[in-house]
């Protein structure tokens, strides 16, 4: 799921609307998304055509926020809040407004902690332009910018 737009299935080209349907597949160094049922149908068809027994599929489940943070290993408070925002905007089907309270709640059970989320968001917005800021009724909302996305993508992904 990419910023409010559902990912397209690499097999049937339809949008993947629900997170439960989403399957991430890696093949020959490439990564693509597909519906779970499309993968099952493709495997059955391939086995029938080539007259081979059905193999056990390799399907990668979506990462949890904690797993994503552990893979990216952000070092600063700003990198941590950018990672949480990136994860929310890229991997979650239900989009929530990014507020300091929301990010604090997401980090509640994480190994990564931020001393003052509101201050980190303000600093990331004012000093680095990693977020855009808007106001709704009584709260500040934040949206990750392209610079913020780039900073998360540039973090080294460590596969232990």
Structural description of this entry:
- This protein has helices spanning 36-50, 65-72, 77-91, 100-106, 117-126, 146-154; strands at 7-8, 15-16, 22-27, 30-35, 131-136, 139-144.
- By secondary structure, it is an alpha+beta fold.
- Strand 5 and strand 6 form a beta hairpin.
- The model has no long low-confidence stretch (mean pLDDT 85).
- A two-stranded antiparallel sheet has the order 1-2. Strands 3-4 form a two-stranded antiparallel sheet. It has a two-stranded antiparallel ribbon with strand order 5-6.
Radius of gyration: 19 Å
Strands of the widest sheet, in order across it, are 1-2
The helix-strand sequence is EEEEHHHHHEEH
The main β sheet shows up as:
2 strands, antiparallel
- Overall mean pLDDT: 85
Number of helices: 6
From the N-terminal CA to the C-terminal CA, the straight-line distance is 25 Å
Count of individual beta strands: 6
Q: How would the global form be characterised?
A: elongated
Binned strand content = 15-25%
Low-confidence stretches: none
Characterize this entry briefly.
With 160 residues, the protein is an alpha+beta fold. Helix content is 40%, strand content 18%.
Question: Which key phrases capture this entry?
Answer:
40% helix, 6 helices, 160 residues, alpha+beta
